[in-house]
């Protein structure tokens, strides 16, 4: 678990988050009909290394994986929930795309994700993206010194429930900072007052994942891409946050 107590480390983390947010923002600007996920990955990689930093996901082998992740950017399209390996199939009108990117700056890791529409999408899909974004906001607001990890999951779950959409409860956020994935696991469902206590200096990546249909998921044969079992579309938003005594700080912001 990453607990950053030193001012110098927190400043490095803030700079890492600023760099990542700028790069992902610029990558998103390239999302359009005809662009391939591989192009987006190559663009993000180039931007990271030009800044003297390291792509956090490239060649990273998470627990349970049999081979390293082969890209810098996860590109998950439509029913692909997370960890999509970018390929050469062009994006098309009405796709929805999750872009998930991690960066290592001076040995500290930050992680963020956004979901974007390609051209026109249905009102239901617009609502899906909006609700998932709002769920991240509510999860962040529930993160404070003396609170508990269950407070975050409860806030996310309550934000989604009235919409009729479903939280993908098997997946969730995690600690981050010194490694890509650290303790604690941060579920997107939960009960207020339960789970690990949130302490000052804790670094967390919160990431609500929401689907229109059944929350059941399956792993693609590529060993990384997780899809909805029903084929329903999903959305995914993520920010890295730092817990301070003054309150929660969103690290992955461009400005």
Structural class, from helix and strand content? alpha+beta
Estimated radius of gyration: 17 Å
Percent helix among the residues? Answer: 25-40%
- Assembly type: single chain
Give the CA-based shape: globular
Sheet with the most strands: spatial strand order: 8-7-9-14-15
- Main β sheet profile: 5 strands, antiparallel
Distance between the termini: 27 Å
The poorly predicted ranges are none
Total number of strands: 15
| Arithmetic mean of pLDDT | 97
Spell the H/E element sequence: HHEEEEEHHEEEEEEEEEE
- Helical stretch tally: 4
Report the portion of residues in β strands.
Answer: 25-35%
Describe the fold and architecture.
The structure is a single chain. The protein is an alpha+beta fold and 255 residues long. The chain has 4 helices and 15 strands. It has helices at 7-28, 37-50, 123-141, 149-160, and strands at residues 54-55, 73-77, 80-82, 96-105, 108-117, 166-167, 172-175, 182-187, 203-206, 209-211, 217-219, 226-228, 234-236, 239-244, 247-250. The protein is 26% helix and 27% strand. α1 (7-28) runs antiparallel to α2 and α3 (123-141) packs antiparallel against α4. The strands form 4 sheets. The chain has a 5-stranded antiparallel sheet with strand order 8-7-9-14-15. Strands 1, 2, 4 and 5 form a 4-stranded antiparallel sheet that branches.
């Amino acid at each position: 678990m990453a607990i950053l107590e030193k001012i110098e480390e927190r400043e490095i983390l803030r700079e890492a988050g600023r760099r990542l947010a700028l790069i992902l923002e610029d990558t998103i600007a390239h999302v359009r009909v005809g662009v391939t996920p591989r192009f987006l990955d190559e663009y993000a990689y180039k931007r990271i290394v030009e800044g003297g930093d390291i792509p956090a996901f490239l060649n990273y082998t998470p627990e349970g994986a049999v081979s390293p992740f082969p890209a810098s950017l996860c590109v998950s399209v439509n029913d692909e929930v997370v960890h999509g390996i970018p390929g050469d199939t062009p994006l098309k009108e009405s796709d929805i795309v999750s872009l998930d990117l991690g960066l290592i700056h001076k040995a500290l890791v930050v992680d963020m994700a956004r979901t974007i529409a390609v051209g026109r999408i249905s009102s239901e899909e617009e609502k899906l993206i909006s609700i998932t974004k709002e769920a991240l906001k509510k999860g962040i607001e529930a993160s404070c010194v003396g609170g508990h990890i269950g407070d975050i999951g409860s806030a996310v779950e309550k934000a989604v429930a009235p919409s009729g959409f479903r939280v993908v409860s098997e997946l969730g956020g995690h600690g981050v900072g010194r490694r890509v994935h650290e303790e604690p696991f941060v579920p997107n469902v939960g009960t207020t007052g339960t789970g690990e206590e949130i302490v000052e200096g804790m670094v967390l990546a919160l990431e609500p994942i929401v689907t229109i249909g059944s929350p059941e998921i399956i792993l693609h044969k590529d060993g990384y891409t997780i899809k909805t079992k029903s084929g329903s579309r999903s959305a995914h938003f993520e920010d890295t946050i730092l817990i301070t005594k003054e309150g929660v700080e969103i690290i992955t912001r461009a400005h």
